[in-house]
Structure formats: structure tokens, C-alpha cells
## 1
Amino acid sequence: MTGIVEEFLALKEESDADVLAMQVGDFYEFFADDARLVADELDLKVSEKSSHGSSYPMAGVPLTELTPYLKSLVERGYTVAVAEQRGDDDTTREVTRTATPGTLLEATGADARYLVAVVRDGDTYGLAAVDVTTGTFRLTEVEDERRALAELGRFSPEEVLPGPTLRGDDDFCEAVREDTDATLSVHGTEAFAPGKATHEVRERFGEGALRAVGVESEGPGARAAGAALDYVAETGVGVLSSLTRLQPYRADDHVALDPTTRRNLELTATMRGEREGSLAATLDHTVTAMGARRLEAWLVRPLQRRAELERRHDCVAALADNALERDAVRETLDGAADLERLAARCTSGSADPSALKRVVDTLARLPDLRERVTSSPSLADSPLGDVLDRVDAEAAADLRETVDDALADEPGGETGIFARGYDDELDELAAEHDDLVAWFDTLAERVKAESDLSRVTVDRNKTDGYYLQVGHSQTDRVPESYREVKTLKNSKRYRTEELDAKERALFRVEEERAARERELFDELRAEVASHASLLQDAGRALAELDALACFAEHASANRWTRPELRDDRTLDVTAGRHPVVEQTVEFVPNDARFGEGRRFLVVTGPNMSGKSTYMRQTALIVLLAQAGSFVPADSAAVGLVDGVYTRVGALDELAQGRSTFMVEMQELSNILHSATEDSLVVLDEVGRGTASDDGISIAWAATEYLHNEVRAKTLFATHYHELTELAARLEGVQNVHVTAEERDGDVTFLRTVADGPADRSYGIHVADLAGVPDPVVSRSRDVLERLRADEAVDVRGGSGGGSEGSEQVVFDLGSGELRATGDGGGDDGEAGGNGGRERGGGSEAGDGSDALDPEAEAVLDELRGTDVNNSSPLDLLQRVNEWQKRLD
Ligand code: ADP
Ligand code: MG
């Protein structure tokens, strides 16, 4: 025992894994700390094994049952090394495989599972993303960390391998942890080294591969790819040869979408992190796992290339318009096997006979699909056929025939894996087997005929093998040659020499047959594996048809329309809806129009009126159009955007414990840096996470900057009414508001978006509705009226307290400040109020009696001298903060 535990601990040390499963005979055992961990995580029973005075916790699972445990551990983020017995006498053990989150071949479920290696070289980042379960290998290079993180996040990786220079970069690693659920793993520095890494890539994909994909052969992309390959090889998962193709892409082929935006728009998960209620879940009518993966990939990677989008829209249009044909296509796809995954399983040697049967069954659908797509004139005119053209139909038919001819109808059943006639040797063994079985089947008849035993049966069990069983009434008649093996209550069991011999022969034949089957099956599986890229092509074609049919299905069920794509900066949506919200409520459609003099819309309206929904639906319509889908609108002209950026104010997010004002400002800063004239920006209550005066300042400055410098199409919902004044001052800014109606003190949300700023007094109606006492409600109406008129408001003392009654206060609407104007200072107050309204107009309010101290004067001078247009919001925030301190 001690020896085994020592061996376990030594192997564990060597392996670097979190947990080791070590084969001991028919079990995989976990010892010591690993046993406790496994017991805690997986409910396995721990026993104490003691030997030589020490005792060790130990837990085990049968050899054949490791997979589910392995899967659960890895899905919980652990890496698990597996040590197997090797050598003739099974005495040496070695780690044959390390299962890690990013290389878990056993993964079930439709989701892609990416391992992403990231290398930084100067400002360039190389990203290599591998999904071993599907053989997908993607490669890209991007400039700057922000884009690298955005790109990384899109893969939703399970595991990230930071290159040597990034490992010590806490900011980077922290950001990865924040944006993804990935495990960060360390892989040897040499694997990332230029010479070695790129050698790996050339070995696998051929000499010209890197050149062909346009990355520099020693650059960060190539190094990331090499390191990823090396890591996959080292884990021993055995799928390298299913990585048949390097699929490079340029990050700017896709619409920029940072992690925050993906989360805000709830593309694949809701803000709460659930799939249910996300855009992907709402849209998903796919009938295959491959199709579901493709749909998701399209949604998180909308395209900028118009030709490809028009092609998808053409396909969706054809399928949307022809319900019968669409149903036929979807029925043909329904139940198709996950060919990408099966290709990987064949390569790794883990595919079983039924998996090959499913490959056959799925390949057989290709000609059916072609028939469906070409026989109907309405589909034949669309580019749907091109999707299937990407599969070598002849090679697919050949492979299908090969495998189909080889396999029995129900492989693995009574008749074995292979069809009769496939292999002479196997047929001979099968015939021999059948003869022997027949000999045993007819033995009882023969005995009855040849002897005077009538109560005799032939049977077999595990301990005794075959035997003749004779009832006690006849045991005195059994021939001499019978050898008694067991006595039961009513009968005795016998064997004969002939039976011994036949049984030996049968066991030998069974063994030989199984060995031959294994041999042939390994060959057949290897043959299929050698066609991995064909299976992947076929899988991708089926995935694409499935995803297109899914778009069509949703479009037709929900009256979505084809967007008109434009190369200019148009965005013109008529009667748009929110794709997810429209599923659950009676939705009021709204237009969204951008154009000349309308590139920045300030959206106002009472709480809960629908501002956030309106802005999100507009962003989603653009994204859907650029994912290749139809859109929830009566019509939509969409100028292709290069990025969608959203930010929700910290206050809204704070409620969910997600964000701080600092994060809000960092993200605002990202947007101001990244967005371009071709982007769509959605800001929801930005600036609300701080005191209202500096909140307004930031919102104001950000608006000016977005309008003047960035010039992106922008939707900005705000409760800072002051911002509505910008419409009069900046040529591209327009006000829109979500309407609500007040009747008899009731607020009804109409949810229609109209031009112009919102009325401001809904807050009071809401207070009224909420049951705030009448005197308070009527008093607040009164205060509001005075404030609007810039009139001084008297401060009413409480009935019980001493009454100073006469003090007056002016509320400066511009800054949100209250100023006492007690002892006859009424005139000053008025001047102050007006001064505050004129931003940047230089308030000269500080006259005689209210002379400012020199420090305040200095602050004012700095404030006047601040060039808002050329300052970052963060910068401004810091300055405001500093001014406040000085004024205190
Ligand atoms: P706001 O951002 O103005 O506070 P929201 O956009 O969060 O308001 O909308 C509040 C609620 O109103 C949403 O949960 C949604 O159910 C409903 N809603 C919003 N817009 C519409 C609409 N156009 N038609 C129907 N219901 C809507
Ligand atoms: Mg809102």
C-alpha cells in the first residue's frame, strides 16, 4: 500500500495537475488530498487504507466509469492527470493524459469549448483559439490590449494560456478573469518561443500555412498557434490530426463588440448570467448541435462584409418565404449527428461503432438536402446550394458507402460490429462461432435422443460455464462419461470431455473474433479519421443550413423583415421592436431615424417608460442585420457599422452589485477611444453614478466629444434634463422622448418614441401614485413651478419648530445647487440662478456682498480655462474632484 501511495505522490508531483487518477488494476484511485477533494466535489466515498502503521484516504472509480468523474472535475475548473498501467506485466504507470478545461474531449452539450493562447509582442497580440471537440483552429492578430481582450472574450474560452510576457501582467490576467470563466493555465515558456512554436505550426499545417494566412511567420499569432498546438499535444488528448485547418481571420472583419456590450445586450446570456432570456436562446430554433453553435458564433461575430451578409439574407429570404421547403430542410437536418465532434472522436480513438453508424446516417442526408434545395425553384434560385457545394459530395458518398458496407445493421448487437461479407476471417470465425453455439443449442435434443435421459437441459452460467442439468429422478441413468460438477436441490450438473473441448473452442473463437473486430474497427475508425476534414466540411455545411433555416423560421413566425444594407451611415428603422421583449409583452413598435442633423439622439422620458428597451432594440436590430438575420421591424435600412458600444450607468448596474463608478468611467473612456464615425454607441444613464453636478458635467462633455470628434451614431438616455439643451447648440444632436400620458393624475406609459424632449414632471406624478401624502405632492408641484421660473422658493418651517419663515432659497437648475438668499439677498439669488444656466457663459454672479475668497476665484479661473472638448471624462472627473476639495 505504502509503495502505491508513494508512486501516486511521485506521479502527481511530476504531472503539475490539480488531481491525479491512477490506475490500480480495475480501478482508478485517488489518494491523500486528492481523495478528499474528489470526495468533496463528487460525492465519492472515501475509505481509509492503512498499512505499515500509516493510513491514507483513498477513493476509487471503476476503469470504465472514469469519464463522468473526469468531466465533472474538469468542468469545475480542475486539471486532471490520468496515469495508466503500462508494459506487459502492468507494473509501470505513467501519465498518459491530462484533461484540462480547454481540452476536454468528453464535453457534451452543443457549446463550443475554446482553449485560447495569447502572445503579446509590443502592441500586437496574437490569439490562437482551438476547440479540440470540433477541430476548429482560429488565429488572429490585433493591435492593443483592449481589442485583444474583446476578441478573447468572444470565444468564451474555457482555458487561456497567456504567453510569457502576459503571465506577469496582472491587469491582463485580472481582465481575463473578469470577462470570462476561463481557467488561466501556465504552459512552458519554450513552447511560445519563436523558433519552436512556429515549427509546430508548419509541421501541422504545412510550410506555406502561415504565409497563406497572412501572419508573419515568427509573429505573435504564429507563436500563439504553436504554443496552443504544443499544449494540446502535451495533454495527450490525441486529436492533433483532427486539427486539419488553420482558419485565420482579421478581427476587423467583425463588428467590434466588447465584453460589456455583449453582456448589456444579453447576446448569449442575460445580465444575470442565464441563457434563458438571451437573444441566442430566443432565436434558437436549430435542430442540430452544430447549428446551435453556428448561430451563437454568428451572433457574437456580426460581419462588416456586405457581400457575405447579402448572401445570408438571400438564403434566409428563400427559406422564410417557403414554409414547406423550409420544413423539409429542417426535418432532413433534424437528428443529424455532430460531425465536427465525431471527427475529433474518431481521431482520438474514442468513437464507438454506434458513433460511426451516426456518421453514415448523417452523411446520407447530404444528397437529400441537395435534392430539397435544388428541386424547388424558389430555393434553387438562392445561394443555398452553394453551402452544400463546399462539401466534396463524391468523397462523402464514398466514405458513407465504405462505412455503411462495413457495419452491421445494429453494430454491437448479437451479430457483432461488422456486416457479413466484410472480412473473410471474421466471417469464418462467425461461422465457427455459430456452429459451436448451435452445437450447444441442440445438445439437449441430442442427449435425449441418444440416451434415456428425458429431463435434461443445457445451460451456462458464470462460475460453471456450460453444463448439462439432469433432474434427480434420472441422475442414476447418466452415462459413465458424465462428470458431476454440482448438486442442487432437485438436480445435478454434469460436464463431459466433449463439452469441455467445445467450450474451449467457443471461448477461443469468441476471443479471436473480438480481437479481429477490434483490429478491423480500429482500421475503419482510422479510415474515417483520415477524412476528418471532409467530415468537418460536411458538419459546417449542415451547421450553416441549420442556422439559416433557424433565422428563417424565427423571421416567419415573428414577422421579421429583411434589412436593407447600405454602405453609408444610414440607420432608418420603421416600427422596430425588441427581439426578446416582444416575445413576452404586447410590444409598441418604434422608429429609429438617424441621418442629416440627427446622428446623436438624447433620449428622455420618465422612469420605466422604455428608454433602455428602445436603445437596446435599435442596437440589436443593427447586430441582427449584420449577423445575417432578418430584423424585428417593418423595415430597416442599416448602414454597416464597424462596432457597437454600450455602457449602462453605474447606478443601474450598482443595484446588481456589478460595477463601480470607476468602472463606468473606464468603459466610457474605452468607448470614446474606440468608437469611430462608423460605430453605433448606446449610453444608458451614464454619469449617474456620481453626484449630480459632476455627473451632468461628464455627460455633457462626453456628448460634445462624441458629437464633435467621434461622430458616431449615438443614443444617449439620460435623466439629466440639462442635456436636452444640447440639441439647440450642436447640429447633429436631436431630442427624442418616450411618451407617457397623464390623465387625472395617472401616468400611462404609451411607449411611443417622439421627437423633442420629455416633459419633466412625471416624477411628481409617480410620487403621487406611490401614495406620498397630498401636501407633499402639491408642495413639490409648487416648488417645481418656482424653480422653472427661476423664482426664489421660500423655506417653510415645520409647524412645531421655531419659524424663521422668511428665508428664501434659489435652486440652481444648472448645477443642482441650493443657495440661501436669506437676509434680503433675493436679487443676488436671481443672478446666481441665471448665471448657472449659461454654461461656459462666465458667471459673474459673485458681486460685492458675496465676494469669493482667492482660492475659489482660482478654481473658477481653472474651470473657465478648461477645454472640455480636449479633455477625457476621467481627466475632467479628477479635476472636478480636486476643485471640490479645494473649495472645501
Ligand atoms: P426605462 O429605461 O425608461 O426606465 P425600460 O426600457 O427599462 O424603461 O422599460 C421598462 C419596461 O417597459 C420594460 O421592462 C418593458 O417590459 C416595458 N417596455 C419598454 N418598451 C416597451 C415597448 N415599446 N412596448 C411594450 N413594453 C415596453
Ligand atoms: Mg433604463
## 2
Amino acid sequence: MINTVIFDLDGVLVSTDELHYEAWKRLADELGISGFTKADNERQRGVSRLESLEVVLEKSDKTYSLEEKYALGEKKNAYYRESLKNADSSIVLPGAVETLKLLRNRGIKVGVGSASKNTPEILEKTGLIGLVDKVSCGLDTDKGKPEPDVFLIAAKKLGSAPCQCLVVEDSKAGVEAAKRAGMHSLGVGPYGRTLGAEACAPDLASGIDWRELCG
Ligand code: BG6
Ligand code: MG
């Protein structure tokens, strides 16, 4: 029986996807990498900062040392954080607040499982921090999705067994991570983006039957 729901952050609870894309695009342009597209950005969903950078560098003929790659990741993060400077509850996606409240009212434990190291700050700025029980993020592990670590850490913090957890994801890597963690999965977003999830919905505002999902 499911008694815990673990939400991904970017693209599920908040609309930061476009900001990530713009920051990577800015870095790519600076590095003289042309042709970094939204399709490339799709492959960055859920994966760690360093792995996201690898997607950008695929289109470069220059080789970078690990040290240089960390510095480039920091640079992109500075651009991303610049765009988050004035972030507030307006970046919270439709249905997110209502869903978190509804689940907690029903006694379901609620966690966040995100590869992003910016997770705590975003949760604070948007006010979502007060609506979740535990947070697991890129500060807890360097392993991004599809590795299961970020979800397993969330489950441990929440005191739940993996089979009691439902993961809500907007990415293919995230759905795969949930599977590897031995958890159930609900995909949100356009059809096809979360293939393999046990259930799917366009977004959190579209009348998801939580009673049926969580039993
Ligand atoms: C995920 C995003 O949530 O976090 C990825 O979907 C991003 O695109 C990853 O690369 C790491 O984020 P950050 O904020 O630590 O660079
Ligand atoms: Mg996501």
C-alpha cells in the first residue's frame, strides 16, 4: 500500500525548466557551441548538473578537463541563480499546492526528490517548504537520475519502504530512477515524455485520482 508520495521539483512542482534551458543556452553560446536545442534540453531533465553539461559539450570539438567542467557547471549555475533571484510562488505549477495539502490532509507522507542542488532555496522562495515533510536533493548525493539514490534517500528520511512510495516525475530519467528504486511512478507532462510510468497525467491540476493511486 502506498503511504508516501515523492515529488520531483523541476517541471513537476515548479516551472524552472525554461530557466535551466536559458542558462545552458547562454553558456553554450559563450563557448561558441551552436545548435544547442530544446531537444538536447529534454535529455537534461532529471540528470545531474555535470551530466547536463555533457549534453551541451557533445556539440563542442574542444576537450575539457574535469576541473574545467566543474567550473563551467558553476558558471551555468550562476546564470540559473541569477534568473531565480526574484522567484516566488508565481513559479509554482498549477495544482501543486492543492495536491500537497490534499495528500497531507489524508495522512500521506510527502517528500521531494530532486537532482538539483538549488532545491532547498527554491522550496523556501516559493513557500513549498512548509508543505512537504522531507527533502532529498543534489546536496545529498551527486548521483542524478536515472540512478535511484535521490529517491531512496527521500524514502529513508521519510521512514518508508520503497514499495510504499509513489514517485511523481516529468522526465524519462526520473521514471527510470523510480523503477530502479523499486517505487511506483506517476508521469506528469506531455504524452511520451514519461513513457514507462505506471500512470500519467498532463499536470497536477488535472483531476488525478489520488484515492485510487494511493489506495
Ligand atoms: C534537475 C533538472 O532537477 O536538476 C536538471 O531537471 C538539472 O536539468 C539538475 O541539471 C541539477 O540541477 P542544479 O540546479 O543542481 O544544477
Ligand atoms: Mg523534473
